[in-house]
Every structure is written in structure tokens, then in C-alpha cells.
Amino acid sequence: MLINRIFNGNDAVYGLTVGAIDDAIAKNGADKAVGFPNTAYCLPCYYAVTGVKVKTLGDLKEAVGVVKTLMTREHALDDALMSGVATALCAEFIEALKYVDGAVPYEEPCYGHLADAVIRELGVPLVTGDIPGVAVVLGSAPTAKEGVDLIKSYQAQGILVTLVGGIIDQCEELGYKTGANVRVIPLGKDVTSVIHVVSVAIRAALIFGNVTPGDAGALLAYTAERVPAFVNAFAPIDDVILAAGAGAIKLGFPVISNETEGIAEVPGALIPAKVEDFNKTSLEARNIKIKITNIDIPVAFASAFEGEIIRRGDMQVEFDGSRVDCFELVQSKDMEEIEDHRIEIIGPEIDEFPEGSKQSIAYIVEVAGKNMQPDFEPVFERKFHSYINCIEGVMHTGQRDMIRVRISKDAYQVGFRAKHIGEVLYAKVKSEFEAVVDKCQVKIYTMPEDCTKLRHELAVPAFDKRDDRLRNLTDESVDVYYSCILCQAFSPSHVCVVTPERLGLCGAVSWLDAKATNELDPNGPCQVITKEKCIDDRIGEFEDVNEAVHKLSQGALEEVSLYSIMEKPMTSCGCFECICGIEPFSNGVVITNREYAGMTPLGMTFPELASMTGGGVQTPGFMGHGKHFIASKKFMKAEGGIERIVWMPKELKDMVAERLNETAKELYGIDNFTGMVADETIAQDPETLVAFLTEQGHPALSMNPMM
Ligand code: SF4
């Protein structure tokens, strides 16, 4: 019965797909291009399963023939599940047809297809557990309130929620905020739009997992073992939804439903539950563990709120470091100077500020512990941005003495006050850094004169001192480096070697971060790597680094260099901020970043360039890296260093200009180096690029060819 229903649903979708492709060919011709925007993987699901890139409607016609071969009709569960995969592929074809001719088929609030860049951004939060799972909520809940309550429950746990079908209207009906910034992503109202989240899981396997397109077995093993997704399907479930659900089950994603008619439980895969139990049942079925953060505040605290935006009209009060004196600071103290969990407000509380006003704030988190080191202060402090943003109804930007904090009227009305910022900082610092912080207290100043005085007398000198320390921190000045293998959850053979002058390629792990992580959890993702046996100083190769990488990659990597893009380069996992690739006409390299959607002079966009590397394999000529690494004296040192950089997107160039120019001046005596580096407003093809570089006398032109 269940199996017959899956076959019926699959047949229905297959028939629709064949009809839609034939219609599209009749209208546009078989040579018409077809594909999704901002992905290097054409039709990602079909490409991953078969290894074939579909580029035209003619290709699509052939592909649907291949899909037919998956639709075997033995009366066995595996045939039914393969029919589920066939249904998913048909859904991908139907969705792809919506994008023909550059059409924009989805409008707010729906997203439809999600770009490769979104998946790369999700990499780190998924591996760190900040996003512990991915929920696919499908159909209409019995009532809008029940649907929204379910979404809220996932959001409060940090789970990424995707919505398909009637639930999207139910959110709108109750005015519930959705969007990628609050991790509730409406995909589309047709059931076929569910493929856009399937496509995310499948591209994760290609991007992070180094799964070879066409190796369906490895693909299914990857999604089942490493992508913590599940489906919540509201009744009624028709045959088409059931067939799509079978596809999800084949990928390893359990389907939880309140449907009681005409379906049977498949243990661990198709699970009946009441709507109010969906959350609990889903987490159990997928074995998702939620890190409980119990903080005594009147609003929710979850990573899902990290991207929440508080508009001017919605804010109760704003602390704005660009207008008035504000800062945030961590200071180490002696044990006896600290009363644990003391939260002190020195000055007026928010109640005393006029609604919508701009005020000063300074919060100092004082910590003490036997193993505490001043080097950890900036590591904790950099986390404040994320901690404060995780508070529902509070927005934080910037750092140090350039912070801005907005508190919404909604949060204020349910009782949120400045002291709760102290509660959050206390709870997070104590829980995340418990190995080094024994005691912690928070002082919050809200009187402008206090903030001004403390900013100039305490905070700025502390920041200056730290900057001096960082400036003196070089690869040569330290005794050890650190590994980071956090991304192995997705990219099983990838190892970052983190040095003072080369941070992790995600941009989130500096040498100090790795050091702190190691001290907090000596058996955790960051291990000490000695650097005593240098093999080749030019490329930065060490016998001990090689040994560590070999061991930590489970034998996948033998040798790695720290400073070369051509010889034994470091691997990339997929969540890199930037990618750098050789530009042969100029002897230089082009760098582009995840946020830049346009074309580079290499004739490739970021997703296309990024697809050349990743998955924990070495790819000479291409290198994933963090933004801060661009200005490092060790950037491609073996190939001549930053002098090789010939092109960057303008926004990235502006962002790194000050430090890059400083390095260029120090290393080569070049003034205003970024003036010689092209961007998209100057050149988008190699000829214009070389003409510009020639005019500027760019040093790369006279350097040795890299290949
Ligand atoms: S440093 Fe490397 S392994 Fe660690 S989280 Fe960043 S990219 Fe992943």
C-alpha cells in the first residue's frame, strides 16, 4: 500500500516533468540553456547522482530518460526509495525550468534556489554545532499558531528551518518574521521547491565532502552521516509528497508526520507523531543534541537570532559608538578582585532613557582563573558580537570602541534591560571558557562621562597594547603552530595549519583562537604542532608539520607547505572566505570573495572558482583562505608574495587596503600598492587587466611565470 502510493506519486511527477520539458523544448528549442543561478554545479542533484552536467533543454530531455531507469517497480522498499530519488530529480528539473532565460521565479518571502555561497557560509556553524540541524517543514499545520510554535521551537534551538507549501502563508498570516537572517527560509509554495534544500545537502557533499559526482553510494552515505536534516510533513500527505518523502529517507533524512491515514510507520525513517511532539521526535530520530544555554533573561537566546535586524523605528534605545563613547572590554584580574556572577549597572537603566534615543554604554567583563592568560582576552571579546546578537530583539555590530547595540521595543516591553546583557556575557564566558575562567563579573557603565573617561584611560590603552603584541607575533617568533580539524565533520581529510601569520581559511580561527581552543580542550580540534624540523624555509615546509597533517588527515595528506600556492599547498574544506587562483597572462593571482557575485578576469565567478578546490584535497594553483591572510607577509611567500595580487573585487580591496599597503611598503617599498591592483570597475577580462597593469607598472608583470 505504502509502496504503491510512492510509485503512484513518482509516476505523477514523472509525467508532469516529461510534459514540462517537452513544452519548454517546443517553445525554446533543445539548445536553450537551463540551470540555476550562482552555482557551479548546474543541476546539482542530478550532477551529484550521475556525474553528468545538464546545460541545455536537450540535455534535460536525455536526463529525464536516465531518471526513468531509476523507477523500477519491484514491490520492494528499496525500489520505492529509489523512486523517491527519481521524484526528487524530477522536482529539480521542474524547478530548473522556472529559471530559463534568467527568469526570477520566486519573490518575497520565498527564496527558491539557494546559491553555493549560502552553503559555504553554513559550513562553520554546522560543524561547530551553532546550527545543530536542518528542519524541512512541509505543508500546512492544523492551525497557523501550531505551525509558528513549531518553527519558534526550532529557532530557539538554533536549528535552520526551511519552509515549503502552506506553512509559508501561515507565517505571513501571523506576521511571523522569516528570512535567512533569522534562519527561517521559505523556499516556495509548490512541493517541488523542497528540492532547493535537498540541493543544499547534496552540494555540501560535493563542496565539503569531496564526493565525486556520479558516486551515488558515497553521496548517500555523506548526506545520511553528515547532514543533520529531517522532514516534518503536515497531514494530509498525498502520493506526491509521500514519493518526495521517500527521496528524503533515501538521503538519510527521517520524515515525521501527523498523517494517520494510509501510511505505515517505517522505524527510524517514517515516524508518526502529534504536531506538538514533532520537535522532540525529530531530534531523537536524527540524534541531534542541543546545547542548552540557560540564561536568566526575559527573551529567547539562540543562534537563529544572530542575523536579526532591528530597524530604527523598532528600537527602544541605541548605544552607538560612532556618535558617543562606547566600548566593550575583557580584563584579567586576580581571583580576590572578583565576585563571581556580580552584574553591576553603574548609571541609569534603560527605563530612564527616552524611547528611540542614542546613549553611551561601556561593559567590562572581568575574569580570573588559574589558567587565564591575557592573550585570551581578545578571543573572548571577539565572541561578544555573536553572544549579544543571539539575544532575541537585540542587535550588535562592531567591536572594541566602535560598537553599536540596539534594543528593540518588543524586547524592552517583555522586560529586557541592560543588566541582561551582563547576564548573557557572564553565562557565555563562564560556559564556553570554563577551563580557564573560574570567576567572572560584569560592570556596565551608562553615564556618558564614565564611558568617555574609561574609554580613553582604560580601553584604548588596552587595545593599543594588544595590537603591539599582535604585530610582534610572527611565524618565527612562536614555538608552535596549531591544527584545526573542526571542518572534518564535513570535509573528512581537511586540516588547517594555523600560524600567527596565516589564520584558518574560514577567517574565524586565528593563532590566538587556536591556542585558546587548545588550552580549553586539549583533546579538541586544535592540537599543538611543533615546527622544529624545517625542510624548506622558502615554501614553509616542516617535517613535524607534515607528520601532524598526515596523522590528522588519517593518511590522506603526506606533505603540506604553509607559504606556497603551487607546491604542496594547504587543502581547503569549502568554507573559505576567499579564493585565490593563478591569472596566467599577468603572472599574477586573482582573489575573489564569497560576497562578490560578479565575474573575475579568469572567466569564473566565486562559486565556479571555489568548485575547483575544496573537499580536503590539494589543488595547486588554487587556494582558499581568510580575508586577513591577504595582507600577510606570508601570503604566497614562495611565489613572491602579495606582489602577485593583480585583481580583487573593489569592496574586498577597500577592506584590506590599509594593511595590504602597509605590507607592500614594508616588503617592497611600494607606495599605495592597491592603486595598482585592478577590480571589477577596471577590468573583467585578461586583456583589459594586462593593459591596466602595464599602465600601472605592476610588479607581477616582470616576475617569473608561476607555471
Ligand atoms: S580553521 Fe579551518 S578547520 Fe577550523 S573551522 Fe576554520 S576552516 Fe574549518
Automatic annotation (TrEMBL):
CO dehydrogenase/acetyl-CoA synthase complex beta subunit C-terminal domain: residues covered: 463-707
Organism superkingdom: Bacteria
GO BP terms, alphabetized: acetyl-CoA metabolic process
Domain Carbon monoxide dehydrogenase subunit alpha ,N-terminal: 20-100
Annotated EC: 2.3.1.169
Cross-referenced Pfam families: ACS_CODH_B_C (PF19436), CdhC (PF03598), CODH_A_N (PF18537)
Stated name of the protein: CO-methylating acetyl-CoA synthase
